[in-house]
Design brief:
This protein is an alpha/beta fold. The chain is built from 15 helices and 13 strands. It has two domains: about 10-135 and about 375-435, ATPase, nucleotide binding domain (Nucleotidyltransferase, domain 5), CATH 3.30.420; about 175-365, Nucleotidyltransferase, domain 5. Helix 8 packs across helix 9 (about 225-230). The longest helix is centred in the last third of the chain and has 30 residues, at about 305-335. The structure holds adenosine-5'-diphosphate and magnesium ion.
Length: about 425
């Protein structure tokens, strides 16, 4: 079974809804890869005054925004009625319960009223599949060619990456996925579509959370990731030394075949059980201690140049750790490609360092375009399509019929099926993860 749109059959169009945190998002995605519309109503301005996401405010804002966002996404995709589509997908976790409920309840209502199958999507699987979305505007009719790996070659590096992305399973898997967002930092070995092995995760704060908290300490603004990146541009990352958590001193030559890579950090992952795990909480404390020490010495830690230098040192450490562990896992598991996703994958230094490093190795690297790095619904539509195509046979989906694929007619769902979906429902990604 494959999600291929063979024989010119009409595109399988999914309305996807995402409200797991502070973005109210809806998108229409065709055949899991073509974005027909993608609306995101960000709540950043609303939460800025709190310096972080205020959960109750987030869920109330979703209630206010969701109808317009969904209507706009349908209109952008020239969909007059939900019934014209093939399925509805919604993020059902992980995330803030009150926020998730808004999207899940709307999706249930739409699916029940229209009779369309409802596909629950794990938010992290959504981030992973942001790397499978085409963003070059190629029409759905080109899908056959690109699915066969014969899509238009040439163009930008990312165009050719996307063409390559469409290659056969043996070209693509195993793939190493680094998920780096505000809530998660995970290294996942993707053995095939919708088949994952969790290699490591953060033991405490996520990378994005660390960016946000350090930005708050330095009073650089919210959200912290872009603020730290902007400050670091005029900073000297060498002025202050910060610890690289769960790394050990090492020489470049220790990590073959990366010896030639100029960007490889001179630290290596620790040995043992935490080799692929992360920890960013102590790094945040190290920044706080550094600031206190500077102030004891009579310096102003938040003075523009000093704050920029601290931001640059912090960003360098995070990138070193993320890249060092990703490079180590890529070598260990002999992966065919590396994908980075989640909000922190928007970070310029991380993207640049990863590009340089994996280019040296000739290992394909994929990062979503910037607008697909942070939360959006297009990635949820993509994940839903692949899950519906590849995972239902192994893992029955109550809402889509036990063996439905995007090109089967779904069995008629019952009211009970819809009521069964809640935000604590067992999450597909977690279910399929083996340690
Ligand atoms: P989540 O899924 O956890 O709600 P997102 O995937 O939307 O979060 O990612 C949001 C996180 O990404 C925030 O912590 C934010 O600071 C971080 N982020 C966004 N842009 C950048 C950047 N350029 N550099 C580093 N971090 C970034
Ligand atoms: Mg996210």
């Amino acid at each position: 079974m494959s999600p291929k749109n063979a024989g010119g059959s009409p595109a399988y169009r999914i309305l996807a809804i995402e409200t797991s945190c502070d973005e109210t998002a809806a998108a229409v995605v065709a055949d899991g890869r073509h974005i027909l519309s993608n609306r995101v109503a960000s709540q950043i301005e609303l939460h800025r005054r709190f310096g972080g996401v205020y959960p109750e405010v987030a869920s109330r804002q979703h209630v206010l925004a969701i109808q317009t966002v969904v209507e706009d996404a349908l209109a952008d995709a020239s969909v007059a009625h939900v019934r014209e589509l093939d399925a509805i997908a919604v993020t059902n976790g992980p995330g803030l319960a009150g926020s998730l409920l808004v999207g899940v309840n709307l999706a249930k209502g739409l699916a029940f009223a229209s009779g369309l199958p409802l596909i629950p999507v794990n938010h992290l699987e959504g981030h992973i599949y942001s790397n499978w979305l085409c963003t070059d505007g190629s029409p759905v009719a080109d899908l056959q060619a690109s699915e066969d790996g014969n899509g238009p070659a040439g163009g930008s590096a990312s165009d050719s990456a996307r063409t390559q992305r469409s290659g056969s399973a043996s070209d693509q898997f195993p793939a190493l996925i680094l998920i780096v967002s505000g809530g998660h930092t995970e290294l996942v070995l993707m053995e095939g579509h919708c088949r994952y092995r969790l290699l490591g995760a953060t033991l405490d704060d996520a990378a994005g959370e660390a960016f946000d908290k350090v930005a708050r300490l330095l009073e650089l603004g919210y959200p912290g990731g872009p603020a730290i990146q902007a400050a670091a541009e005029s900073g000297d990352g060498g002025r202050f030394q910060l610890p690289r958590p769960l790394m050990r001193p090492g020489r470049r030559t220790e990590l073959q075949p990366h010896a030639q890579a100029p960007t490889l950090p001179t630290v290596l992952p620790v040995r043992g059980e935490h080799r692929f795990n992360f920890s960013f909480s102590g790094l945040k404390t190290a920044v706080l201690n550094l600031m206190r020490q500077l102030e004891r010495e009579g310096a102003e830690a938040r003075q523009t140049q000093t704050a920029s230098d601290i931001a640059a040192a912090f960003q360098m450490v995070v990138v070193d750790v993320l890249l060092g562990k990703t490079a180590d896992a890529a070598a260990e598991f002999g992966v065919k490609q590396v994908c980075i996703c989640g909000g922190v994958s928007a970070n310029g230094l991380l993207r640049q360092a990863a590009e340089q490093h994996f280019a040296k190795l000739g290992l394909p690297l994929h990062c979503p375009p910037l607008f697909l790095c942070t939360d959006n619904a297009a990635m949820i539509g993509a994940a839903a399509y692949y899950r519906q195509s590849y995972a239902v046979a192994r893992q029955p989906s109550p809402m889509g019929g036990p063996h439905s694929t995007p090109h089967d007619k779904p069995s008629e769902p019952s009211a009970r099926d819809f009521l069964a979906l809640d935000v604590y429902a067992s999450l597909p990604l977690v279910d399929s993860i083996q340690r």
